[in-house]
Structures are given as C-alpha cells and as structure tokens.
Write a structure and sequence with these properties.
Radius of gyration: 26 Å
Strand content: under 5%
Helix content: over 70%
Length: 509
Amino acid sequence: MLCSLYIRDIQTAPMNQFTTLEAFVVGVEDSATLLKLYIERIRRAPHHPAYHLAVCEHTDELLAATRELRRAPGGLPPARLAGVETLLALAEAAAALALRLASFPPERFTAGLDGLSQATTCFVDVVRSFSGEDSSPDVSLAGHITQRLQALLSVETPPPSSATTTQHARRITTEVTFDGHEDPFDDLAVDTDDDFLDDVIGSLEGAFDAAIHSAAEIGAPDKLWQGEVVEPSIPPEVRQLFTEIAAGYTQPIKDFIAELRKGGFARDWLTACRPAVASLRRASESIDFTDLSSRLERLESALLQDHTEGDRRRYGRHWKLRVLSAYADLENYLPNAFLIPPAVASPESIIVTTLLKQVAGVGQRTTQKLFAAGMSRIESYTTGLPSDIALAAGIKRALAERICERFQAYLRARETTSADLQARLLALIEELKQRQFEFKRATLEAWYRRADSTEKKRCRKARQEVMWRINIALVELDQLDTLHEIRHAVFDKRISRLEALATSFPERP
C-alpha cells in the first residue's frame, strides 16, 4: 500500500518540482514515453521539424526533472545520490545531442538516433532500479552510453550541403495520407487488434502490387524503391533554372496530388495534371536533367494507367499508392519545385478522426481507408448506409455499423449552447485531472513492483479517452490554437494549459 504522503505529493507537485524520488518517477513517465515515440517517428520521417522539436523538448524535461531531484532537500541516501549524478550526466548528453541531431550528416544521423534511443531506455532502466532494495544499483551501462553520446558530440559537424539536405529531406512513402489530428499518446491508448489484421492484409496487397508492377515497368531505378536518393549530377545553376521553369506548371499537379492525398479528386483535375507532367518531363530532357526526367516519367506512367482498372477495389487503391509514391520521390529530389506544404487540419477533420478513434477496432489503417474513399466529413457517416461505407472503404460491415452509430450519437449530443460547451469542458478538465492522478498512482505501484501492470494500461487508455472528448470540445469552442499547442505535450502541461484557458471564460450568472 502506498504511503498517503507520496500520493499527496504526486497529486499536487507541478512538473519539474520533485521533492521525493517517487514523485520524480511518476513525473518523468510521460516525458520518457513521448521521447521514445518521437525518436521512432524521426526514423520514419527524418525531415519532420516538429518531431525534432519534440525530442529536444522531452530530453530537456528529463534533464530538468533530474536536476530538480538532485537539488531536493534530503531524502536520498548517498549511494542513490551517486546514481542520480550518473542519470544527470546521461540526461545532459542526450539533451545536447537532441539539439544537434538535425544538422548531422547521414552517416552520423542514424548513430545519433540509436544513441538517443539507447539513452532513453537506459534512463528508464536506471529509474526502475531505484525501486529495488539495493541502495547502490549498477549504473555502469549509463556511464558507457554517456561516453558514446559525448563522442558523437565531439565530432565537428560540417555545414549542411545540398546533397545532405536532400538525403534528409523526406522518405518515400506509399501510404495514403489524411488530414487529421495527431496525438502521440494515441499510439499507446487504443487496442486495435482488429486493425492489426487490416495492416497485415494491406502489407500483403502492397507486396503483391509491387511484384506485378516492377520498378522497370514504371521507369524507376531499383534503389529508389529502397528509399535511397540518387546523388544529383547536374550543376546547381541548371537545377535552379529548371525550378524557375517548373513554377508555371507544378500548381495543377500539386492541386491534384493534395486532393488525392485526402482521398478523392475530380476527373478534370487528372486531365489537367497529365499534360503538365508531360511538359515538365520534356523540359527536363531538353536540358539533360536525366535524374529528374526519369522520376517524371515514372509519375507520368502511373497517371496514364486507368485508376478504375478492373472491378476490384484494390486496383484503385494501388493506383493511388503508385501515384503518391512517385510524387513523394519528386518532392524528395527537388523540393523547391515540388514540395507540397502539409495541410492544416480543418476543424471538421479533427472531429471526424477523433470520433473514429473512439470506435473499437478502428486504427490508423482503417482511418486511412475511410479518408482514401472520400469520407472525411461528418455527413458521410450520418447520411450514408453502413453497407455502402463498408463497400467503398473495404472494411467489415459490422465495423461500419459501429462507426455510423458513434457519429449519430455525437450529433444527438451536440445540440448545446456555447455556455453549455464551456461547462462541459470544465467538467472534462476535472475528469482529466482525476484520470491523470489514477495513472500516476498506477505508475508508482508498477515502479514498486518493477514491472508494468494491467492497471497502468487501463488508466492510460481511460486518460486518453477523456482527452479525445476534450479535443472535440476545444474544436466546438473554436479553440484550435490551444488544441495544437497541447497535442505534443505531456499531460501535466496539458492540464495546466487547459486550466489557464478555463480561467479566461466569463463567469456564468
């Protein structure tokens, strides 16, 4: 049974103000979890600046928390204090590495990511070791990892070249993207076993599609399929000249690709896109820009294939994947001409994706299928038949019925005034504070047992479910700035920001 003093401590201590080891343990839980998630996201999307900023922020949080624990007045025996010093050196090296990671050349970039991943895992392991009876846990591994990170930092980083920037700019993707709201804790909160089967089937279909549509068929070098960027061999002035020429031709292509990424497009957009791609290809060939012309030829070949090929839905989906993959390669190779800035999530799309997350069995794969089928609006689920939705998106009818029921329930509950919305948000903030306390208590209990518990997972899921309802309330109150501000933050910071927002509401009579 936990001491009531510790319970009161973790309930009331603000972030980075830790007076006991127990409060430190629960305080860094979310920071370490998010750090692991964002490191893996950088592996998938090394160009994404928000991921790099998040890694910097969360390594700083671990560093600040460790410094605060070391300054705590008493309570730590000398042997434990020595462990905290080792932990502090590790956190300092990780924070310094996170700041410089984006400027690393390719050969050091992967080593830097591996070092940060090892440092985070070691940090958590050392914290867990403090729960044992041994007053002086082994921290030798933390020392070795700290030295490794310091060695990476000691190498002078040359100024980034255009080739380095190109190689780090973007990974080729074959996923249909959708305009939605991203919350990293969603990766931890939902049981998506049904969606896991969709992932497996989707991967098998993708492998089959790649086999029947070889790289040679669409004019792409083999190593492009492996995500490797061909080293540009054309002079910079020629690249700049082509970028200027392309400015008048790329807009219809960008408009078409942007709508295709959302899930739908008009046939006349495709008609306008094809000649623009052909004109760019001919222009690149006229100046012997062979690396680019081969990429444009790949996109042109994909566009010329009928996207309604056959009667089976999967051919249409694979046509989209071929087109999007070919265009992502162009963005990667010549971003000044082809890069499409990420779209800002619309309020309605945030509500749609949040409601979908609340349906059992819906995960990222199912959401992508629905958006790829053009169902990105609330009315798509409130006016359409479940059987039609299941057929269009390629999902089970029972799942489509659950989705429609959730949207109908949302519409029934939405008939409220602005004042009622504010009151509902205030109640949700209080509920989130309670769920956060329960999660911290379960975290501390798991720390004492030195193993994650089922109760901790249950509390994490309950906390995220409340957060989803808060997301919808913020959208309905037109508080999108607050929503985007807190979505990458740990829950203690989210609660503080939400409470500050609540104080700005006018008092009700």
